[in-house]
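ok so for the tutorial part 2 we go from a plain amino acid sequence to predicted structure tokens. step 1 is just haveing the sequence, like this:
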Amino acid sequence: MTIEQAEKKWNVKSATILKYIEKGLIDNLSCKNNILILPDIPKPYIIKNGSNKTVEDAYRHILKACNKKQYIDCFLLHISEEEFVTYRDSLVAEKLLEKIKNANVGTSNMYETR
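step 2 — the prediction. this is what the tokens look like for a chain of 114 residues:
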């Protein structure tokens, strides 16, 4: 999707999207015919500096992002992909999250709170 499409989908200004990109918070960008293409994902869940210090914080952020139907991944949490999958799968096993059927976003699957 283009920056203009993301503005509408995420209900944020283009300057905010550009800040996300500048900070490296949006992954898998591409360029087509000199137009920046963003991945077609829900609005990214942005974590404030210093608010992800413990394992409990990571769990809280994953649940909060899914509850708000926002995109979150290991990159946004500043943890390894292995840690992210472990935390996510643990929340699924505890029946706090469930996978949304037929919903793939890039390489990540979408989950929602139960």
